[in-house]
Structure formats: C-alpha cells, structure tokens
Amino acid sequence: MPERRIDDGGRPETPAQERTSVEDRAQVPERTAVEDWMPAEGHERRGVAVWDVLRDRPLHYLLSPWPLRCLAYVLSGAVLGYAVLLALTVLVLVGVTLSVFGVGLLILVATAALGVPVAIVERRRIRLVEPESMADPHSLLSGVGFKGWFRARLEERATWRELGYAVTLGVLGTASGAGVALLLGFSVFLAAAPLLVWAAAPDTVTLLPGDPVGSPAEALPASAAGLVGLVLAGYAAGWLAGAQAKVARLLLSPRDEGLSTRVIELTRSRARLIDAFEAERRRIERDLHDGAQQQLVALSMTLGLAEMQVREENARARELLARARGEARLALEQLRRLVRDIHPQVLTDHGLAAAVTEVALRNPIPVTVDIDLPHRLPAPVETTAYFTVTEALANAGKHSGASHITITGRVRDDRLHLAVTDDGRGGADPDSGAGLRGLADRVAILRGRLTVVSPLGGPTELRVEVPCSG
Amino acid sequence: MFRVVLAEDSVLLRAGLVELLTSGGHEVVAAVGDAEALVSAVDEHRPDVVVTDVRMPPGHHDEGLRAVMVLRRRYADLPVLVLSQYVATVYATQLLSGGGAGTGGLGYLLKDRVGEVSEFLDALARVAAGHTVIDPEVVRVLLVQQAQAETLGRLTSREQEVLALMAQGLNNQAIAQRLTITESSVVKHASNIFMKLDLDPTDGNRRVLAVLAHLRGSGPE
C-alpha cells in the first residue's frame, strides 16, 4: 500500500548524504589513496593515526616512513610555530604601542584573525601524519569586501579557536620541536662519534668532560648511545606529532555548532527564496493586471465602438469586428485563468476559506468545502494552503476518477489542519507530481507537514498541517 | 441620459469608458483614478449612476468595493455598477449584502462586458433604474456546481432557466421577454422555485441575494 509521508524529516527517497550535498561540496575533506604505512582501512580508527601505529605495531613503526614523516611534521611545526610566535609578538607589541592612535586597534583586530591563514596551512600540513585533511569550519564568503570579511570572521567561534591554536603552536609546538631537534642533533653527533674521532686524529675528541677519547673504537659506546637517542627521537617525534595532530583536529575542524549555524542559515535562505518567489508572482500578477489585461479590455471596447459605427449594410465588416472582439474575449479569459493560478486576489482580500470556496465552485468535480477558521492566517500559510488545495484538486481531476471531493480546514492548537479527500480509485504516487513535491518543500519551510495517503482502491487523502504563528 | 461618475485607475480604460459612455448619450461629470476621489466626486456631483473599478490605488485590493459601501450608506438610493477584471461570488455577495442596504440599483460585471457596447449600456440603464445586475459568469459558475450537486434536480429545466436569470438580477418582466413567455407564467415559475428551494419570495436586491446565497450554499455574509 503506497503510504508515504513527504516531509522534511522523513522523506524516504532522500538519504542523508543527498541533503548534505546541499551544503558545500568543496568543504568535504579529500581522501588520499590509503598507503600501506597507514592503519588498515576498515579498522575502526577514531583516534590519531600515528598513535594507533605506535600502540599496535611499535617495532614496525621504526622501519616504516612514520618516524621521518613525524619528524618532518614536528620540525616544520616548530619552524612555523616560531614564525607565528614572532609575528604575534610583533603585531601585539606594535598594536599596543600604537593603540593611542586608532591604527593600533586595527592592528590588534587584524591580529585576532591571524589564526585563519595559520589554520589554512595547518589543515594541509596535517596530511603528513593523517590520512585526511580537515574540512574548513568557516562559512563561505564572497563579495563582502575586506571589512565584511573581517567582521564575519571575528563573529565566528572557529576564528577564535584558530587563534588559540596559533598561540599553542607558537609556544608548545616551537618548544617541543626544539626539544626533538636537540635530541636528534645530539644523537646524530654521538652516533657519528667514531667517525669524528677518526677524522680528528691525531687530535683527541672529548665526549665527556675529563675523558678524552683516543681512538674510534673507544667511541663505540657513545655511538651506541647515539643510536638509542635516535630511536628515542623517532618515538618522541611520533608521540608529539600525534599530540599536535590531535590538538589541530580539536581546534581546527568544523564543530556541530558551526553546522547548526549553517543549517539555520540554509533554512533562512530557503525561506527568503520562497518569499522572493512569492513577491515575484505578485509582481507578475500586477503587471498582467495593469498591463495586458487592461489593454485587451480597451481593445475589445474599441472594437465594440467600431462595430457600432460601421453601418448596417457593411455586414462583412461588422462580422469581422465581432469576430475580433470574440478573440479578444478569449484572450482575456485565458489571461484571467492564468492570473488566478499565479496569485488569486480573493485570497489576499478575503482569506483562505473564501478563496478555496471560489476555486471549488469552478472545479469540474463537485467539491464540498468545510473550512472554519477563527481568524485570518499569516500570508505564507494562506498561500501555501491555497496552492496545496489547487494542486490536490488538479491531481484528483487528472488521475483519481473521483466523483466527489471534500475539503476540510480547522485550526487546532494554533496549527492549521487541512485535508483534501477524494472518493477516487487511490494509488496516487506522491512522488510523481513535481507540483506536490514543491508543495511539500514549501510546507516544510513553514515547519509543517504534508502527507498523502492513497491506498489502492481509494480514498486518497492529502493532509497538510502547518503552524499558524509564523 | 444619465450623469455618470466614473472611477477607473487605468488611464487607457478611463478614456475608453468616457468615450463609450458619451457615445451612449450619457454625460460623464467626473472621471477619477482612485476610491477616495470617487467618494468626493459623488459628494460633489450627486450623479445618477456610479461606474467603478474594484481594484484601485493605493492598496490595489478591493478599494472600489469599500468606496461603494461608504457611498451606499451615505446615499441609499445611489445606483452603482461595479466593473472587475475577474468576478468571484464572494465579491458579489460582499457587494449585495454590504451595498444592498440601500434601495438603488446594483451591478457587478466583468470588465470584458464593455466590449458588448449595447448590452453594457443596457445593463447600465437597468442599474440606474434600480435593478440588480449580476454577471452571467458568476451565475453560471454557481449553477453548474449546484446542478452537479443535484440540489437543482428538483427544479424543472424551465425553472432552472428562470432561476439563472433571476440570479443575474432580471425582474419578472425582463425574464418574460428573454424567455418569450408571459409575465404571469414567470411569476408562477418564480413562486415554485422559492417554494422548492425554501427561499423568501422577496423582490429586488434581496431576491438576487437570496438566490445567490442559496447557490453558494451559505447564508448572506
């Protein structure tokens, strides 16, 4: 039995990802081909990639590209962090110094947005140690200008999290990177000790104070210590890279709060679109009323006057004039029907009950109207309800084979409940009509619900439920 | 010859209507473009009949109809012919119940009818003489619906013809002429109709209103 509900929450043929596609495709993170050094695909991995490897296969780690990647990540992070720290310090100092002049405050404001470019780099750099880059949490801005960009960005929480990340990177990133660099450098030095001793001969090299090393062989324990140091540096880099990646994910990824803001934005823009659409319909209706319709009435009036002037004996001319007038009348009738479909004046002047009664009177299948509303409803509700009725009537006329239609309308709990029921053969497919789907969208925007129940054999019932207070 | 006040916001149509009325031998004492000007023009000229558009500035809704209500409260016997780009039964009812308080004639016609010059002038004369004229389109819509709903099944086909003309506002004499029957048989048909439909056998506006109200399937608003 084809019983389907078309509403915003449960449209069966619209999977979740189709709806997310309404948002920006460019913001969906790109995924690299999975390389063998990455944790296996399918392995439920919600943590940090490098930590997973360290925990699951600590020995394999050393022989994989991981240590090199982690070192690259940590060391480049230190370089970047140092630059960021420098820039922040300079900007803040200059800003504070000049804050007695207006320009200093501007510099401080600009400093607040410093995290944005840092984050752009960081979201890409994380690919050194993570399989995916990160999505951009910011809303899309275009054509807003320099000032508009700053204003919009400073209003977003993501911007402030990014600033926090920039400071963290500047302090902790630089410090830990420097630590790893020191350990690495010293280990390389120790490991290479026999070589140095050999190269420096006949001079002696002092590795430990008061204990000069004479021959390369005597430097071998130092070399061993250096190798241990290198291993330690590899693991340290891995652990630190994981920590940094985790902090980056925490601070630089989109959050739910950004997502819900975007959903609200989308909902609003959808409502604005409908409003604009409605305004456009009204404009067209008014243009037709003031323009073509008046012109045609004037034309038919002129033809009528001409007909009176033509003498009786010129029967041919009179006949032609009468025909022309008939054609003008047909054109007017068509235009009137068109205008009524675009935006019915009765609806604006007298409300839903009167407009539905009027359209019911013109319907080829007899309609019983039982609409009893305590007051006028908001214009968007009236319009949506009205067009739902006309669409339902049109569908019933086309497909159902119904001989009678009933329309009921009531307001209960501040919600309009409207039902259009026909006694036809049923089996209507709510997805077949583009009109019906458009209506479901309109109803959804008003936070309402449209349901079609049409079992084979009938009856078909279309229900609309819309909150009355906008 | 009537002295006419005309209200129509389209300049083109206003000029056309002035020409048409003048060619019919009437005098247009004032031709205005909005409802407010209509009321003051009537106050000033006290015309024999008013011809007005429904949708006019400033709001472009039913300003014309509202002005008619005002005028009919002020001058109960003022005949008014309302022209509209489209007709709706709800406006007909609004006009007849709101403006029907007076005794003057009332008319509600599609603007298209002005093309039928002589019929239009005839309708104007009937309104000026105190009769009610309702556009056949309104009546047709109502009759078709009621015929399908089998409410009118109890009426003979002749009675249905008489009912349609009554709804358009024709008096018994005019109906007799249209159907080429005697006036007394029209009276007989009419009383049958009123009996079968359980309506009050009144006359004039109230008769039309009662018929329309019955056809709309609701009481006068």
Describe this structure in words.
The complex is a heterodimer of chains A (470) and B (221). Chain A is an alpha+beta fold and 470 residues long. In chain A, 62% of the residues lie in helices and 10% in strands. In chain A, helix 6 packs across helix 8 and helix 15 runs antiparallel to helix 16. The longest helix of chain A has 54 residues. With 221 residues, chain B is an alpha/beta fold. Chain B is built from ten helices and six strands, in the order βαβαβαβαβαβααααα. Chain B has a six-stranded parallel β-sheet with strand order 2-1-3-4-5-6, with helices on both faces. The longest helix of chain B has 15 residues. The radius of gyration of chain B is 17 Å and the shape is globular. At the A-B interface, helix 11, helix 12, helix 13 and helix 14 of A face helix 1, helix 4, helix 5 and helix 6 of B.
In brief:
The complex is a heterodimer of chains A (470) and B (221). With 470 residues, chain A is of the alpha+beta class. Chain A is 62% helix and 10% strand.
